[in-house]
Amino acid sequence: MHAVVRFFGAFLAAAMLAPASGMQKVISQYGETIIVPCNNGDNKPSDLIFTKWKYTKDDGSSGDLLVKQAQKDDAKVSATDGYKDRINITDNSSLLITKATLGDQRVFTCMVVSINNLDEYPVEVEVRKRPSAPEIKNKASQLENDKLTPLGECVTADANPPAEIIWLKNNKTLLNDNKTVIITPNIATDPVTGLSSTKSSLQYTAGKQDMTSQFACLVRHVTGPDQVTAPVAFSIHYPTEKVSLQVVPASTVKEGDNVTLKCQADGNPPPTSLNFHIKGKKVAVTGSGVYTLSGVTRADSGEYKCSLPDNDKIEATATVTVTYLDLSLIPSGRVLKKYGESLEVKVEKNSSSEPTVTWTKNNSKLEKQPDFSKLTYGHAGMYVCEMSVAGIKRSASFHLVVEGIPVITRLTKQQSTDGKNKVLICEAEGSPQPNVQWSVNGTNSESSYVNGKATYRLTVVPTMNLTVTCQVANNLGLDSKTINVSSLIDDRRKEKQDLPEDEDKAKLIVGVVVGLLVAAAVVGIIYWLYMKRRQGSWKTGEKEMGTSEESKKLEENSHRPDV
Ligand SMILES: *[C@@H]1O[C@H](CO)[C@@H](O)[C@H](O)[C@H]1NC(C)=O
Ligand SMILES: *[C@@H]1O[C@H](CO)[C@@H](O)[C@H](O)[C@H]1NC(C)=O
Ligand SMILES: *[C@@H]1O[C@H](CO)[C@@H](O)[C@H](O)[C@H]1NC(C)=O
Ligand SMILES: *[C@@H]1O[C@H](CO)[C@@H](O)[C@H](O)[C@H]1NC(C)=O
Ligand SMILES: *[C@@H]1O[C@H](CO)[C@@H](O)[C@H](O)[C@H]1NC(C)=O
Ligand SMILES: *[C@@H]1O[C@H](CO)[C@@H](O)[C@H](O)[C@H]1NC(C)=O
Ligand SMILES: *[C@@H]1O[C@H](CO)[C@@H](O)[C@H](O)[C@H]1NC(C)=O
Ligand SMILES: *[C@@H]1O[C@H](CO)[C@@H](O)[C@H](O)[C@H]1NC(C)=O
Ligand SMILES: *[C@@H]1O[C@H](CO)[C@@H](O)[C@H](O)[C@H]1NC(C)=O
Ligand SMILES: *[C@@H]1O[C@H](CO)[C@@H](O)[C@H](O)[C@H]1NC(C)=O
């Protein structure tokens, strides 16, 4: 049916039906030309005299329209009313009526008059008009939750027959239940054109779920497919039932941080003002419901609340925990102590939770807090204590300096391998770094100083027996020691007697002996030489004075208390 209408479309737009009465029916579109057929084209008997079209007036009487003589080309219009300028007849005797109006909905009769007959073919004309696209008017700005609210009016104009309006929510038909949904239709007819305009008012009870609902209005009409408005959505107003309070940052808050309290109400629209309960004080905050605690301290830890200004019972609670860490270290700065003294180190802390503690000395990690019950030069250095709890790090430090009068720990001599000179080694402890003074002139004077231990070297070429004094001194005091050094000339003489100069030489020979032993070829000779050397040594009892002095010193040193 619709397809047919569309097929004839713009120019003819007519369709034929056979009504129950048996009378033929023609449907035409408003404003277009109506074609009223005469006996479906079978209307030209051979003895035709003329064809005449007439119509039935509103009062039931008959009115003439036109007459066409069989022999003539033109028809004679006999109408005197509005039809006078709107009608014509086709070659197959169809009546044409231009600019169809609703007034043309009546019965037109074709009279075929021949010599032997007079036939009448009445045709009923119906004029249809497709309604305008629907529009939603007087749209509500928002809907009240759980309250019947006029949502809008849907209008569609100038239809015939009247159009039907259907409200849709999410593409589903909304049905009137006279309670939560009330749909009031209204049809108005234009007194001039007779066309109908349909209006439908929708009152709707929204729920929160309708925040996402899409409303649309659909117009249904015999003339064609449904016409639908673009969907519209509404904001639903509902009161706040719950507030929530959020702390940002949600993770650890440390002293100095800025903390934001965000209070949110679930109503729509949200309340314009909210109350924050800050440390027993009520603070009204308008706008977005944000309260900022800037630069928090440990005193800001605790419970916070927010509530509705007009209803304290609707409230939310949040806890803020501010982590903190204070560290104080006694002593601090530069600490000067004497060798052998003790140093008490006091670490005091206040923290929100047990901190992790690390100690470093000169940037290298220590296992634990150092023990300074008896200070040595090795204790000197930069000490740093670092503590940390959740995101906070604190450190404190002191620079320990250990001072002491220099003490010579060892005074030894070594003959160079070529036997041309002797190296004197004077080892001492003391801080600040002691200066050395030798009682003899020498060459290649060297010194090193590490952790309070000083080592001084001096190379001498003794041409005679020497008594050498090593003296070490700093601003706190001095120490000295003496060593006897035999002349190189005497040494050479002794060498000729195959006597070892000192332990080193002996060791060297032992090394050679061992090498020979390994060779295993001359075991007997080696054994003999070995025995001979030992005999010689015991026989002469020759031993460097310095060597015995040296071992004595070493022994002394190992027993000496640390001062
Ligand atoms: C009469 O002629 C027109 C073309 O002039 C045609 O469209 C129409 O179908 C014809 N009517 C009948 C009933 O044959
Ligand atoms: C009626 O139609 C004929 C052709 O079918 C045309 O020649 C004539 O001018 C038309 N008359 C009117 C009044 O339109
Ligand atoms: C309604 O139906 C149309 C097409 O039929 C579709 O595009 C639209 O997404 C649907 N809307 C909803 C809310 O389902
Ligand atoms: C709504 O009320 C009208 C009259 O007030 C009644 O005709 C109609 O049947 C009712 N509809 C429903 C669904 O109750
Ligand atoms: C806290 O906020 C102030 C401005 O209100 C800003 O200057 C400061 O840098 C912020 N502090 C932190 C730790 O973000
Ligand atoms: C720790 O807190 C107490 C009491 O508030 C205070 O007296 C002390 O000085 C604090 N200690 C440190 C290391 O800040
Ligand atoms: C530690 O540093 C100090 C200077 O800060 C330095 O005198 C000392 O020798 C260093 N100690 C160690 C063990 O490196
Ligand atoms: C060491 O040499 C200086 C000159 O370089 C000289 O004055 C001094 O007497 C010498 N001392 C000894 C002990 O030989
Ligand atoms: C050097 O001392 C040694 C004993 O240690 C002695 O035998 C030698 O004669 C002395 N030489 C001189 C030149 O005094
Ligand atoms: C050094 O030799 C002298 C004699 O030449 C002697 O009196 C003195 O005790 C010796 N010193 C040492 C430390 O052996």
UniProtKB/TrEMBL annotation:
Q: Which UniProt keywords apply?
A: Adaptive immunity, Cell adhesion, Cell membrane, Cell projection, Disulfide bond, Glycoprotein, Immunity, Immunoglobulin domain, Membrane, Repeat, Signal, Transmembrane, Transmembrane helix
The biological process GO terms on file are: adaptive immune response; cell adhesion
Q: Name one GO cellular component term.
A: dendrite
Quote the InterPro entries the UniProt record gives.
CD80_C2-set, Ig-like_dom, Ig-like_dom_sf, Ig-like_fold, Ig/MHC_CS, Ig_sub, Ig_sub2, Surface_Rcpt/Adhesion_Mol
Recorded protein name is: Ig-like domain-containing protein
Location within or outside the cell: Cell membrane; Cell projection, Axon; Cell projection, Dendrite
Q: Where is this region: Disordered?
A: 539-563
The membrane-spanning stretches of this chain are 508-530
List the membrane topology term(s): Single-pass type I membrane protein
Occurrences of domain Ig-like (ranges): 131-233, 239-323, 333-399, 406-486
* Signal peptide annotation: 1-22
Per its UniProt record, what PROSITE patterns does this chain match?
IG_LIKE (PS50835), IG_MHC (PS00290)
